[in-house]
Write a structure and sequence with these properties.
Length: 484
């Protein structure tokens, strides 16, 4: 069925404007996504009961606004550049799964300054080099368009094993399990290592995707606070003495959302506690390659192998942040005994993982040096954006506002006194065209400090400055309302 049009007649508005406004509203709501074919002028005029000239005028107005385009011989379509506005329902709830859903919708919405998404800049993706790898697989079409291996394509597992070796991790390809993004790997681990009602350890704050998984699987989070060097081990040990958690989830390399790099001494202490109390450490290394330092961090699994504790660490990662998110390629490394627990769950949820075509192309891209070259090109640009964000925070934010100094990744954690109610600053900023991620979504417990996450990976210097200026203006206005 084609697009149907229902008009609310207003004698004070010309009919062509009614038609244009109807389509403009539906495009803004996302009801007519880019590429949607619109009715022909003749068909729409007949449906609405007006002249073709009236419809022509409506379409001309929409075309001048960049919302639609006409292709000779094919018809009229919603423009690829047309983006829906942020819906009124955006940002109504603080639950992690709701916030995560909002973040995904933000990717396709019109927002002036989107500082909410911890993602790479699509303009920097290595399109040409990756397409060349895809083209090279044409002779293997029958193979790459069929079902793949449950563990992942052997060629990709070898490439990932070699990549891990460069970071100090010894991983046999048969210990590498390819997943559909990092989130699927994390869900597999949670399902395999814990039963509903059991407790798991995590850092406070933590990745909001994990909190959503814990809620769905009915697992109880035990938060461990962070300082500038990593998790506070004395708090962790006190929890271990009172509870018997199934595992501890950690993001030691450019922690999301704070951007912190945990110090090696703190990680060694974490491993010693794992040895003493016998729990599994689940390391999320998704951002480990996005380092702006001369000496990148050593992965937790590499330290564990030096200490003979590799059986107690599951290493999770993804190529979504460092390469292209749409590939949906994640992976995990675990001891054979743990892999045996993951595989049956993986088999019933997704029998082959990401499409073999994309796995093979990614393997060739990595092994031909494409990933190394890509990181060499983009890391200085992301570092400059990080520096630019910190510069504008120093310039515009009032006293009492503090922020982290990320040494890698895409996230900066901003903290201030609780001047706003939950989501109030978030909504006020969105009204000014600035998207941020509310900090409460990353927390199990809240206190007298409020937080929000700012992301700089996909923003220009101008966008970062305007976004920070608007946020600072809102905070200053609220400070001025506070009693002396």
């Amino acid at each position: 069925m084609g697009v149907r049009v229902k008009l609310r007649h207003d004698k004070h508005m010309a009919l062509y404007r009614h038609i244009a406004e109807e389509f403009r509203t539906r495009i803004a709501k996302g009801e007519l996504p880019p590429g949607t074919r619109l009715p022909t002028v003749r068909a729409l005029a007949r449906e609405v009961g007006t002249t073709r000239l009236t419809v022509h005028n409506a379409y001309r107005e929409l075309q001048s606004d960049g919302l639609i385009e006409s292709v000779v011989g094919r018809g009229t379509f919603v423009s690829p550049q047309a983006r829906p506005a942020v819906p009124l329902s955006f940002g109504e709830r603080l639950e992690p799964d709701s916030v995560l859903s909002d973040l995904h919708r933000l990717q396709h919405a019109r927002v002036l300054h989107n500082l909410a998404l911890a993602t790479a800049d699509p303009a920097l993706f290595p399109y040409a080099a990756f397409w060349a790898c895809l083209d090279s697989l044409k002779p293997l079409a029958e193979e790459v368009f069929g079902y793949g291996s449950l563990m992942g394509e052997p060629e990709l597992r070898v490439a990932l094993s070699e990549l891990l070796e460069q970071r100090g991790i010894g991983a046999d390809p048969k210990e590498v399990l390819v997943t559909v993004g990092g989130l699927q790997g994390l869900a597999l681990v949670c399902r395999a290592l814990a039963e509903p009602g059991e407790e798991v350890l995590l850092e406070e704050p933590t990745y909001l995707g994990l909190l959503g998984i814990l809620k769905q699987f009915r697992l109880k989070p035990l938060p461990v606070p962070l300082d500038l060097e990593g998790p506070r081990l004395e708090v962790l040990e006190a929890l271990l003495k009172r509870h018997r958690p199934r595992f501890y989830y950690t993001i030691p390399s450019y922690h999301n959302p704070t951007g912190l790099r945990f110090q090696e001494g703190r990680l060694q202490g974490l491993l010693e506690l794992a040895r003493t109390y016998g729990f599994t450490l689940v390391e999320d290394d998704t951002l480990g390659l996005l380092s702006y330092e001369k000496t990148p961090p050593t992965p937790l699994l590499a330290l564990a192998q030096r200490m003979g504790l590799e059986a107690q660490v599951v290493h999770l990662a993804s190529l979504s942040k460092v390469l292209v998110p749409g590939l949906r390629i994640g992976y995990l490394i675990a001891a054979p005994a743990l892999l045996e627990r993951f595989l049956p769950l993986h088999n019933v949820s997704d029998i082959t993982g990401p499409p073999p075509l994309l796995q093979r192309a990614t393997a060739r891209f990595i092994r031909q040096g494409g990933l190394k070259q890509h990181l060499k090109q983009v890391l200085p640009l992301y570092q400059k954006r990080r520096d630019t964000l910190l510069q504008f925070l120093r310039r515009y934010m009032p006293k009492g506002v503090e922020w982290s100094h990320p040494e890698g990744g895409f996230s900066c954690w901003v903290s201030l006194p609780r001047l706003f109610s939950n989501l109030e600053l978030h909504h006020q900023a969105m009204a000014q065209g600035v998207a941020i991620t509310p900090g409460e979504a990353f927390l199990v417990q809240t206190d007298e400090t409020m937080h929000f996450r700012l992301c700089f990976g996909a923003q220009s210097a101008e966008g970062l400055e305007e976004g920070v200026k608007e946020l600072a203006k809102l905070i200053r206005a609220r400070v001025a309302q506070e009693p002396a």
